[in-house]
């Protein structure tokens, strides 16, 4: 219920971490609960958008009123996002692993007495936000996040340009902030025409405020 300023608009949201396999039982991942991305997907749906949520492995439930595509790896997440284009809005919240193991083992790597630990050769994962931000079918509005532990504003602004986003919501995820996995968030919104500091609020409130910002771009 309530006004539906995003009725008729399609949105793609990514959320959660990605898991990059080392072998069938081990993986590399980022710390991400999916709470912020899932809250944003639910909020855009509440505002009337037709939302596809592409989620990495999380323990929280699928939001209601949203089409959810579950993936594990960054390459799967990229494929699902590109398959969901065209869209009016893309909000890339997932904590995508920057690297994956170049050749994941098909069988469990066994620990052999007296042998050195196996080296892990890493290769770069696709940057999904950057791909979407420069895509021929680029959504009208592209939003990214930037989890930083230092130089939040500077790093966020360079990310805005490099990735072709309209907004970057940058946050300080230093361990003392408790943002990773927590319920609260403090973000700096970096846009083409300047920065705005939002006060500390819960992740649901960040989703609502971002929903209003997004809706303002589609209201004539
Ligand atoms: O470069 P960095 O990972 O800090 O950028 C964060 C932003 O880029 C987030 O919006 C994240 O979802 C997105 N991203 C992505 N694909 C990657 C890495 C980051 O979509 N491989």
TrEMBL record:
Domain DNA/pantothenate metabolism flavoprotein C-terminal: 6-215
GO biological process: coenzyme A biosynthetic process; pantothenate catabolic process
Highest taxon, organism lineage: Bacteria
Residues the record lists as binding CTP: 98, 108, 126-129, 145, 159, 163
GO CC aspect terms: phosphopantothenoylcysteine decarboxylase complex
EC number: 4.1.1.36, 6.3.2.5
Pathway(s): Cofactor biosynthesis; coenzyme A biosynthesis; CoA from (R)-pantothenate: step 3/5; Cofactor biosynthesis; coenzyme A biosynthesis; CoA from (R)-pantothenate: step 2/5
Cofactor(s) needed by this chain: FMN; Mg(2+)
Catalytic activity: N-[(R)-4-phosphopantothenoyl]-L-cysteine + H(+) = (R)-4'-phosphopantetheine + CO2; (R)-4'-phosphopantothenate + L-cysteine + CTP = N-[(R)-4-phosphopantothenoyl]-L-cysteine + CMP + diphosphate + H(+)
Cofactor: how bound: Binds 1 FMN per subunit.
Keyword field: Decarboxylase, Flavoprotein, FMN, Ligase, Lyase, Magnesium, Metal-binding, Multifunctional enzyme
UniProt-recorded Gene Ontology molecular function terms: FMN binding; metal ion binding; phosphopantothenate--cysteine ligase activity; phosphopantothenoylcysteine decarboxylase activity
UniProt region (Phosphopantothenate--cysteine ligase), positions on chain: 11-220
Function: Catalyzes two steps in the biosynthesis of coenzyme A. In the first step cysteine is conjugated to 4'-phosphopantothenate to form 4-phosphopantothenoylcysteine, in the latter compound is decarboxylated to form 4'-phosphopantotheine. Catalyzes two sequential steps in the biosynthesis of coenzyme A. In the first step cysteine is conjugated to 4'-phosphopantothenate to form 4-phosphopantothenoylcysteine. In the second step the latter compound is decarboxylated to form 4'-phosphopantotheine.
Family in the record: In the N-terminal section; belongs to the HFCD (homo-oligomeric flavin containing Cys decarboxylase) superfamily. In the C-terminal section; belongs to the PPC synthetase family.
Designated name of the protein: Coenzyme A biosynthesis bifunctional protein CoaBC
Name of the gene: coaBC
């Amino acid at each position: 219920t309530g006004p539906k300023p995003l009725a008729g608009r399609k949105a793609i949201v990514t959320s959660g971490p990605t898991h990059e396999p080392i072998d069938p039982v081990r993986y590399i991942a980022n710390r991400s609960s999916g709470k912020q991305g899932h809250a944003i997907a639910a909020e855009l749906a509440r505002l009337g958008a037709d939302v596809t949520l592409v989620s990495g492995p999380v323990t929280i439930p699928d939001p209601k009123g949203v089409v959810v595509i579950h993936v594990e790896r960054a390459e799967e997440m990229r494929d699902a996002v590109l398959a969901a284009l065209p869209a009016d809005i893309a909000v890339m919240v997932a904590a995508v692993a920057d690297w994956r193991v170049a050749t994941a083992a098909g069988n469990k790597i066994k620990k052999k007495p007296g042998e050195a630990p196996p080296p892990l050769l890493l290769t770069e994962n696709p940057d999904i936000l950057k791909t979407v931000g420069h895509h021929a079918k680029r959504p009208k509005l592209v939003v990214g996040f930037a989890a930083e532990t230092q130089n939040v504003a500077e790093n966020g602004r360079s990310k805005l340009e490099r990735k072709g986003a309209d907004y970057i919501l940058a946050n300080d995820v230093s361990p003392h902030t408790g943002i990773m996995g927590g319920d609260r968030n403090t973000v700096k919104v970096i846009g083409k025409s300047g920065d705005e500091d939002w006060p500390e609020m819960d992740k649901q409130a960040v989703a609502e405020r971002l929903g209003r910002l997004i809706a303002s771009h589609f209201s004539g």
